[in-house]
Amino acid sequence: MIIFKKAKDLQNHLQICRQKNQGIGFVPTMGALHDGHLSLLTYSIAENQVTVCSIFVNPAQFNDVNDFKKYPSTLEQDIFKLETNGCHILFLPNVEEVYPEGFDKKRHYDLGYLDTILEGKFRPGHFQGVCMAVEQLLNIVQPGRLYLGQKDYQQCMIITKLIHIMGWQEEIKIRICPILRETDGLAMSSRNMRLDEEQRVQAPAIYNTLLFVKGKFGKESIGKLKKDAAERLHEKGFKTDYVEIANAATLLPVTDNEPGTDILCLAAAYIDGVRLIDNIMVN
Q1: Which residues sit opposite 2 in a β-bridge?
Q2: At what angle do helices 222-235 and 205-216 cross, to 10 degrees?
Q3: Which residue of 37, 88, 155, 240 has the fewest C-beta atoms within 10 A of its own C-beta?
Q4: H or E element: which one contains 126?
Q5: CA distance 99 to 43
Q6: pLDDT digit string (tens) for 74-98?
Q7: What domains can you pick out in the chain, each with its CATH number?
Q8: What is the pLDDT of residue 107?
């Protein structure tokens, strides 16, 4: 595995790969890698001659400064995991390399309603910051395929929208890969590292609540299901931002079972200051 810290050096190397007609896959991460990230790597290695992984903790997407400061960093372990799992290139830029003009020089992306619902509502400015970093990284790497995890379902939709805004939909194909879970159902996430032993025992309640919704879907009203789900999380010690049942294609809320429509249940909740998100298809 080759490690690049400078964008220009990486671009020069990738230009040689393109001249050899080698397909380039890209897995952007913020580090603290787990098996979910490594599964994206596996998909990319299977489909491309060259796989690039980036580790960049993007300051522009944190609307809570403390959350940014607490984001786990495990660089040595991350490099070992990437090397042993066949990654070809690691891009490890600093903030100045990604934002040469500074990340506080905001650009506004017209993301429509997706920027104001669910994660967009509870983390204002978050997706604008995500788009800033992803645009910069995609400009640097210029991959043929981009690999994203379904756990961040709304973010996948946002990045798809960004690629259309930038007019890159012919050049960059998005692969959205399934959620990987621990044996007790908890969705793999870098934030899980912040859970203490007691919190880790409680954490799977968020997935169990989604399974509860799935089991009752079509048998009870949507309103009652959402209310009952939020109460279940509260009883397990969670502070809930939202439990929503939505059209999987639009993320707009549904009011009843719509035959022929893929419907998703999404949840975001805090357990003692650690925010977890998850989603599952319910029909």
Answers
A1: 89
A2: 160
A3: 240
A4: helix 126-141
A5: 29
A6: 999 999 999 999 999 999 999 999 9
A7: 2-177 (3.40.50.620), 190-281 (3.30.1300.10)
A8: 83
| Pair of tokens at residue 45 | 């290695």
Report, in this order, helix, strand and coil percent for the chain, each rounded to 5: 45, 20, 35
Rounded (10°) CA dihedral 35, 36, 38, 41: 170
At 275, the amino acid letter reads R
Per the DSSP assignment, residues forming a β-bridge with 210 are none
In the block, tokens 């897995």 appear at 27
Q: What is the pLDDT of residue 49?
A: 98
Catalytic residue among 34, 37, 88, 126: 37
Spatial contact of 92 and 54, defined as CB atoms under 8 Å apart? yes
- Measured in degrees and rounded to the nearest 5, phi and psi for residue 177 equal -105, 150
Rounded alpha-carbon distances, angstroms, from residue 218 to 126, 136, 256: 33, 43, 8
Question: Is residue 37 annotated as part of the catalytic site, yes or no?
Answer: yes
